[in-house]
Amino acid sequence: MIEVSELGRTFTVTRKAGRFRRTSQEVTAVGGVSFDIDAGETVGYIGPNGAGKSTTIKMLTGILVPTTGRVRVCGLDPSRQRAELARRIGVVFGQRSQLWWDLPLAESFELLRHIYRVPAGEHAKQLQECTELLGLQAFLDTPVRQLSLGQRMRGEVTAALLHGPELLVLDEPTIGLDLDSKERLREFLAELNTNRGTTLLLTTHDLDDIERLCRRMMVIDHGRVLADGPLAELRDEVTPERVLVVDFDRPCEELTGLPGVREVKVEANGLRQQLSFRRDATTAAALITMIAKRSPVHDVAVIEPDIDDVVRSLYHR
Amino acid sequence: MADLAIFARLARAQVRGQLSYRSSFVMNCFGQALAQANDLVVILIVFGRVASLGGFDIRAVLLFYALSGMSFGLADMAVGSIERLPDYIRTGTFDVVLMRPLGTLLQLFASDFQLRRIGRVLTAFGVLVYVLSTSDIHWSPAKALLLVLTPVAGAAIFGSIFVAANSVSFWFVDARELANTVTYGGSYLTSYPINIYAGWMRTLLAYLVPGAFVAYYPGLTLLDHADPLGAPAWFGWLDTPVAVLAAVLAGLIWRSAVRHYRGTGS
Amino acid sequence: MSAVIGCYLRITLAGFHRYSTYRQAVLAGTATNVVFGLIKVGILTAVYLARDGASIGGYDLTTSITYVWLGQGLLGVVDFWSSDDLSERIRTGDVVVDLSRPWNMQAALLANDLGRAGYSAVARFIPQLLLGALLFPFRWPTDPLVAPAFLVSTVLAVLVSFHIRFLLGMTTFWLLDSRGVRGLYGVVSGTLAGLEIPLSYFPGWAQNALMLTPFPSMLQYPINVFVQDGSVLATLGQQLLWVLLLAAAGRLVLARAMHKVVVQGG
Questions:
Q1: Which residues of B touch C196 (CB under 8 A)?
Q2: How far apart are CA B114 and CA C161, in angstroms?
Q3: Residues in contact with A289: Cβ distance below 8 Å, sequence separation at least 6, in sequence order
Q4: Is residue C176 less than 8 Å (CB to CB) from chain B?
Q5: Are residues A210 and A303 in the same domain?
Q6: Are residues A136 and A16 in the same domain?
Q7: Under DSSP, is residue A51 helix (H, G, I), strand (E, B) or coil?
C-alpha cells in the first residue's frame, strides 16, 4: 500500500543576520525514513511538534516533493500522479477543513461526489452508512461554519470516505475534541478497518489514539524513525519493567530478597511497597504468592508502563 | 470539460447561498454598480470642461469605458476569488486544494464566487447600450462579431493579469496589493484612450500588459476611428489572439508558481 | 490632566509604531498610489492639451500635476477606506472591553489614528511628494507660512476623516452589519473629496453643494492651502467647523451606544 525508502526533505530557511544580510540554512525536516505499510494495517505515526510528521504526510499525499528518496502510495508516485492518487485515498486534516465553509454539510458531500466522480448509488450508500454510524442526521443541513468541532470532524471523516478510498490518512484527527467525541471517532475508525479493511495511517500527539486504534506504531523525532513495530512488542522491548503495588494489613518490613525484583520502594512505614520487576524475570502472580507467605496482604495492583513512558524512553534512546 | 461543470456547480451552490440574503445581495450589487459609476462620473465631469480628450469625443471615451468596465466586471466575477490565495497559503487550506483531483486554478476561481460583482458589468453594459444607440457606427456582421468578442477577450486579458499577479503570492508573502494595483489600475487606465499616456507608461501598461487590446483598439475598429498612434484599422481584431496568448502565459506562470510551492513547501 | 494627555500621547505613539511594522503593506500601498498618480497625470495632461493649455478653475497644468501628487500622497494619511476594526469589535462584542476602560473611547481611537496618520505622512506622503516634485513639473508654495498652514490643514483633514469613520463604525451598534454603509462611503468619499479630479472641475452647482459637506475638508482643502488657492483662514476655519460638528456628533453617538450597552446589554 505504502512504500517509503530513504525519504528525505530539507528546507532552506533564510534568517536575518543583522540589518541587511540574510543567512540561509539547510534544515532537515525528514532524513532518510524508510517503512512499508501493507493493506489493512492500522499505523500510528507519533512524534513531538516539529518531528517531521506533517512533512511526511505531505510527501505521501503529493503536496510536497521529496528532496531525496522514493515514495509510492497505492503504486503511484504522489508528486507526479497527484490527481490519480487523490481518487484512491482519503485525507483528513485535523486543523484544516476540506468542506465548504458557507455551504450546508450535505452540499459539501454532493459537491465532492462530482469532484471525485463517484457513481450516485455508491455515494448514497456510503453517505447513508456514515450518517448512521456517526450521527450526522441532525446537522446535515447546517452550514459548516456553524458546526462544533466534533460535528465538523465527523463531517470531515465522512467526506474523506465518500469515494471509497483504500487508504485513509488522518493528520491529528482528534485534536481539540472532547473525550466523548474522541472515543466515538476512534470506534468508528476501528470498525472501518475491521469491516472494510481500509488501511489507516494516523499522525497524532495523543497516545490514547494509538493505544485504542493502532496495531503498529512508528515513533519519529527530529526527522528520523526511532521505533517501528507492534505496540506490545515495543513496550516489552523498551520498557520491560512492571510495578507491583502491595498494600498490607500491618506495616511490614522491606521485602528484600525476592527473585526477579530489581527495586523495592517502601511507603507509609511499610504499609505499602512497590516492587519493580522485569517481565521476563518473574510474574506478578508468583511474587504475590511469595509475599502473601511473609505477611497478610490487604490489596494488590499492577502498574503497566504507560505508553507515555514507552515513547519517552524512545526519545531518550 | 468536466472540470468546468464542477466549477459551475460550485459557483451555483455559492450563489444560492448569496441570494438567500436578498437585501444584502442587492445592496452589495448596487455598491459594485456605484463603484463602476464613480469612474463614469469623473468622465462626465471632465467632458463638462473639454470637448475631446486625446482627440476623442465623449462617445468614444464612453465606449472605451464601457468595454473596459464590462471586461473588468466579467473577469472579476469569473476569476476574482483568486485574491484569497494568500489566506489559503497562510492557513494551509491550499494544501486541501492540492489534495483534490481537480485543477487548482479552477478550485480557486470557484472558492469565493460572488454574483454581486455583476454590478460593475451592469453599469458598464448600460453605458454601452447608450453609446451604441446614440452613435453613428457603420454596422456590419464583422463588427457585430467584434462587439461580442471584445468583452470576452477583455475579460480573459484581465483574468490573465489577475492570475499572473496573484501567482507572486507563492514567492513573496502577500501579493494582493500588487495584484490590485495591476488590475484596478489596468481597469482605470483602459477606460481612457491610451494615447494620452506618456511613452514608457504606454509601452508597459498598454502593450506589455496588453491593456490596449481590452478597449482601445477594438473601440477604434468599431468606430472606424483612425489611430493617432498609427496602428492599422484591423488592430482591434487582435484582442482575441492576444487574450488567448495572455491566458496561456498566465497558466504557465501559475503552474510554475505551484511547482515552486510544492518544491519548497513554504 | 497631564496624565490624561500622557496616556493619549502614548496611544498615538503606539499607533505610529504599530503601523511602522506593516512595512510591506505600506510599501505596496505607496506603489499603488504612484501607479494611479501616473495615470491621473496622463488624464489631466490630456485635458489641458484639449483646451490648449487654458486653466480650469484656477488650476494650470503644473498646479494640476502638483494636485495629483499631493492627493495621492495624502490618501494614505487621511484614509478613506479604513479597516473595520471598530465595526468588527462591536459586532463580536469585544468593544465592551474598550468601553469599560477608564478612557474616552472616541479620544483613544483618535489618538491611535493620529499615530497611524503620522506614520503614513512619513512613509507615504513624503516619498510621493518628492517623487512628484523631482520627476514632474511641480508647484512649490511661494510663501513660507504655507508649510505650517498645510500641516494644520492636514491634521484637521485627518480629524474630519476620523470622525466620519468613527460615526460609520458606531452605526454597527444599531445596524449590526455596517459593511454596506461603509462600502458606499468608500466608493463616493474619494471622488467627492477631490481625489479623482480637482473639485474645481465640477460643475458650479456641484461645487456649491459639496461646500456644505465635510468631504472637501478631507482632501481638497489641504491641497488648496499648499497651492495657495483661496483664503487660508477661510479654509482652515471651514475644516475646524466640521471637526467640531463631527466630534460633537461622535460624542453623542458614543453616549447613546454606551447607554444601549449598559441598559440593554447591547
A1: 38, 42
A2: 30
A3: none
A4: no
A5: no
A6: yes
A7: coil
Angle between helices B176-190 and C23-50 (to 10 degrees): 10
Model pTM score: 0.81
B203 touches chain C (CB under 8 A): no
Check C191 against B41: CB less than 8 A apart: yes
pLDDT band at A78 (very low <50, low <70, confident <90, very high): confident
pLDDT in tens, chain B (266 residues): 677 888 888 888 888 888 887 888 888 888 889 989 999 999 999 998 888 888 899 999 999 999 999 999 999 999 988 888 888 888 888 888 888 888 888 888 888 888 888 999 999 999 999 999 998 888 889 889 999 999 999 999 999 999 998 998 888 777 788 888 888 888 898 999 988 888 888 888 777 778 889 999 999 998 888 888 888 888 888 899 999 999 999 999 999 999 888 877 54
CB within 8 Å: B95 and A63: yes
Q: Determine the distance in angstroms separating the CA of A274 from the nearest CA of chain B, rounded to an integer.
A: 49
Element (H, E) at B168: none
- How far from A198 is each of A195, B254, C170, CA to CA, in Å? 8, 36, 55
Q: Could you tell me the CATH number of the domain that includes residue A270? A: 3.30.70
Q: Would you call B98 and A116 a contact, using CB atoms and an 8 Å cutoff?
A: no
A270: domain range?
240-315
Residues B146 and B72: their CA atoms lie apart, in Å, by 17
Give the residue from A236, A268, A300 where a domain finishes: A236
CATH number for the domain spanning A27: value is 3.40.50.300
The number of distinct structural domains making up chain C is: 1
From chain B, the residues in CB contact with C183 under 8 A are 28, 31
- In this complex, the residue of A87, A91, A114 whose CB is nearest that of residue B9 is A114
Residue of B221, B225, B195, B224 whose CA lies nearest to B207: B195
**For chain A, how many structural domains are there in total?**
2
**Residues A112, A162 contacting (CB under 8 angstroms):** yes
Domain co-membership, A186 together with A307: no
Domain of residue C186 covers 2-264
Chain C 196-225, CB below 8 Å of chain B: which residues?
196-197, 201-203, 206
Q: Which amino acid is at C195?
A: L
Q: What is the pLDDT of residues A97-108, one digit of tens each?
A: 888 887 889 988
Domain parsing of chain B, residue ranges: 2-264
With a CB-CB cutoff of 8 Å, which residues 77-136 of chain A face chain B?
Answer: 79, 82-84, 86-87, 91, 93, 95-98, 100, 102-103, 107, 111, 114-117
pLDDT at A317: 64
Give the integer Cα–Cα distance in Å for A114 and A163.
Answer: 10
Residues A192 and A120 in one domain: yes
Q: Which residues of C touch B196 (CB under 8 A)?
A: 42-43, 45-46
Nearest Cα residue to C158 out of C240, C84, C83: C240
Cell of B115: 454574483
Contacts of C255 (CB under 8 A, 6+ apart): none
Give the three-class secondary structure for A192: helix
Chains A and C touch (3+ CB pairs under 8 A): no
The verdict on B245 touching A (C-beta cutoff 8 Å) is no
Same domain, A227 and A260: no
> How far does A96 lie from chain B, in Å, by closest CA?
6
Give the span between the Cα atoms of B33 and B25, in whole angstroms: 12
The H-or-E segment that residue A102 falls in is: none
